[in-house]
């Protein structure tokens, strides 16, 4: 697939997710290129009068900026008592609807918001579907800066190969919206994602990891069939 084809799929699936939002809803605004199209479509629906009384809960600085740009009222979790629907992307999706997220280093806030949502919709193009989790993407772990060295050693004892994520066009490591660092950990195999999620989070100094187990309600997959973009639902 060309870059333009992938962009088209992301746009189609983002729009499809935004179409499921109804007036009066509190909406978790995910992070990433596919979710950006969903946020743009939400803004279009608001300006067209199709949606009213929408509140957006951003999962990152990027999502907050985009939400404001497209006219979505932005609030924090302090201001609401529920999240009706969250729309977010993923870096990998396995047949059990388990995800690896965190390519944009926003997985901690994403997991908080997405887990609270009554309906969590994952939007991906077909390239993100894998048979086995961890086959194409490392597991991101958000770590307190003071704990990078001991967490690295602890992860190595678990059989992982950790690498500190470095900035692009920036000297030094990536810093999350919470002021922490990210270790990208490659595992030869992830036999039990739920157990690994708990084990990693129990390491002192780990804030959160990018394994999302038992959180996903609906996956919208953009794929090409007979040369035309289509949306497939996995529920």
TrEMBL record:
Organism placement in taxonomy: Bacteria, Bacillati, Cyanobacteriota, Cyanophyceae, Pseudanabaenales
Free-text function comment from the UniProt entry: Catalyzes the reversible conversion of ribose-5-phosphate to ribulose 5-phosphate.
SUBUNIT field: Homodimer.
CDD domains the UniProt entry points to: RPI_A
Residues that hold substrate according to the record: 31-34, 88-91, 101-104, 128
GO molecular function, one term: ribose-5-phosphate isomerase activity
Family annotation (SUPFAM superfamilies): D-ribose-5-phosphate isomerase (RpiA), lid domain, NagB/RpiA/CoA transferase-like
Catalytic activity: aldehydo-D-ribose 5-phosphate = D-ribulose 5-phosphate
EC number(s) on file: 5.3.1.6
Name of the protein: Ribose-5-phosphate isomerase A
InterPro entries (alphabetical): NagB/RpiA_transferase-like, Ribose5P_isomerase_typA_subgr, Ribose5P_isomerase_type_A
Alphabetic keyword roster: Isomerase
Pathway the protein takes part in: Carbohydrate degradation; pentose phosphate pathway; D-ribose 5-phosphate from D-ribulose 5-phosphate (non-oxidative stage): step 1/1
Top enzyme class: isomerase
Source organism of this protein record: Pseudanabaena yagii GIHE-NHR1
Family: Belongs to the ribose 5-phosphate isomerase family.
Catalytic residues as annotated in Swiss-Prot or TrEMBL: 110
């Amino acid at each position: 697939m060309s870059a333009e084809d992938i962009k088209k799929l992301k746009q189609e699936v983002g729009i499809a997710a935004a179409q499921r939002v109804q007036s009066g809803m509190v909406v978790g605004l995910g992070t990433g290129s596919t979710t950006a199209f969903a946020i743009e479509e939400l803004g279009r629906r608001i300006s067209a009068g199709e949606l009213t009384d929408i509140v957006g809960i951003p999962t990152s600085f990027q999502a907050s900026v985009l939400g404001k740009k497209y006219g979505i009222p932005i609030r924090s979790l302090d201001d609401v008592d529920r999240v009706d629907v969250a729309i977010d992307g993923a870096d990998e999706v396995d047949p059990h609807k388990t995800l690896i997220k965190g390519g944009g280093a926003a997985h901690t806030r994403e997991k908080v918001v997405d887990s609270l949502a009554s309906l969590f919709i994952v939007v991906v193009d077909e390239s993100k579907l894998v048979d086995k989790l961890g086959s194409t993407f490392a597991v991101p772990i958000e770590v307190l800066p003071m704990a990078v060295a001991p967490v690295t050693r602890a992860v190595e004892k678990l059989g992982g190969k950790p690498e500190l994520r470095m900035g692009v066009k920036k000297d030094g490591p990536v810093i999350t919206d919470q002021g922490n660092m990210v270790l990208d950990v490659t595992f030869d195999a992830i036999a039990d994602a739920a157990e690994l999620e708990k084990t990693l989070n129990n390491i002192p100094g780990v804030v959160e990891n990018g394994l999302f187990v038992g959180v996903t309600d609906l996956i919208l997959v953009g794929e090409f069939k007979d040369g035309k973009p289509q949306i497939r639902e996995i529920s």
